Amino acid sequence: MQVSQVPLWSWHESLSEEYTLKYFTSVQRNQRHKQLQDGIQGHAIMYFLRINGISMSCIAEGIKHNMGFQPPRKDCISSNNHDRSLRKNAADSVATVKQSDSLHLSENMPTKLQSTDRRQSSIMFAMKDQQNSEENNSIRLHKRRRRFIIKKSPILISINSSVLNLPTLKSEDRNNSKWKKLYQIQRERKRIMRETCSKYKSNNRRIITPYHVSRIFVEDKYRVLYCEVPKAGCSNWKRVLMVLNGLASSTKDIQHNTVHYGNYLKRLDGFDHKGIYHRLNTYTKMLFIREPFEKLVSAFRDKFEHPNNYYHPVFGKAIISRYRVNATKEALRTGAGVTFKEFIQYLLDVHRPVGMDIHWDHVNRLCSPCLIDYDFVGKFESMEEDANFFLHSIGAPQNLTFPKFKDRHSNEERTTSKITKQYFAQLSPSQRQQSYDFYYMDYLMFNYSKPFEDLY
Q: Which residues lie closer than 8 Å to 342 by C-beta, 6 or more apart?
């Protein structure tokens, strides 16, 4: 029987087991046994390609569709060093093949084999041309695997991870009653936060993954880590960090879209393990929080009471579809007009039709304060005083102060405790209680009082 007349599907059956065991090394022999057991069908050239690091499916695909030999795709090439050495030896061994042999498979006979020598010559010729590019591909694959491992692997830190603990008062500030008072406030906030964590959270295993630091922005010049809490002055804090980093001369020069979509600030999870560990232990870590109900109402007003081409179609449509009886086609189509009561129904539903969002998620989950020892905890309610104390403590330029302007909907009144109570008056006592329970850890950890007297 001529080799060229054997169909592809039956070629492996004409190979004797003795020839197969003789041809393969001990490693490939085990692979061959497994292939025979699994019933994998192929021919000798496919086995040859397999040990040389080229996927059989890539060649079979070309033969199936009546194509000539195609250079192997990047994902069909092995990056293993052993495979590369096998390919080099095989290429050297066929260097004496007659140059008159054809370099491609016949397009007219896709299901027939040509001579084995000619096929091997074609394959080795193509692999020699790609040897350098394969080594580069191997390096790139290694780097991608390394980035994936860094992204998913945990970071072990000590219990008292922060070297700074609190911004240290300068010698000239120790007799200043204003700075001393703010310093004592910080000590008290950190004490309450730590006691809450020790009571309700387990700190036996201090394992931090890149996910836990994904909301933390980095400013290397003044060595600051800022955990972003939406609706608690985060836009203006990003402006301050950009000025500290020399990206702008004034906070007034930075537009809203530049702040949030310009990607000028680095995130902590963008660094490798060493970079994350170093910054967590040596930089000043700070976050600013806000009364939970007030922050929630502020987020609702911003995202659902104004035109929005993301929150209306993504969240609004799902909320109206689930919780509104006899919803109009227009409301279901646009997602506009979500009421506060419907929004709270979505928030408290354990089977939400759409996931959570950072604008109304818990601070406890956004910034992981029980895992990360924040050096400074500021509050939105005392923003100007706290922010300027923080900037003073890190040695920021004296002409840099926290901006007072409202970032969005500047003509609209800020969300206050009075406005917040008006929105929560629309809810039943049970819904208010459940909402309080939802944010209970934030109330407890940051020492906010109960917003309504009937809550327990």
A: 319, 320, 323, 324
Quick: pLDDT tens for 21-42. Answer: 344 444 455 555 555 455 444 4
DSSP bridge partners of 77: 54
DSSP state of 313: I
The radius of gyration of the chain's CA atoms, rounded to the nearest angstrom, is 32
Position 320, amino acid = I
User: Across the strands, what pairs with 286?
Assistant: 226, 376
Alpha carbon separation from 398 to 13, 139, 340, 388, 395 (Å, rounded): 83, 48, 43, 10, 8
Task: Identify which of 50, 49, 64, 121 has the alpha carbon closest to the alpha carbon of residue 91.
Answer: 121
Backbone angles phi, psi at 287, to 5 degrees: -145, 155
**Residue 307 contacts residue 338 (beta carbons within 8 Å):** no
- Collect all residues with Cβ–Cβ distance below 8 Å to 256 and sequence separation of at least 6: 235, 407, 408
The verdict on pTM exceeding 0.85 is no
Question: DSSP characters for 88-127?
Answer: HHHHHHTTTS-TTS-SS--TT-TTS---HHHHHHHHHHHH
Amino acid identity, position 290: R
The tens digit of pLDDT for each residue in 91-124 reads 444 344 334 443 343 334 443 334 444 444 444 4
- pLDDT tens track for 215-262: 999 999 999 999 999 999 999 999 999 999 999 888 888 888 888 888
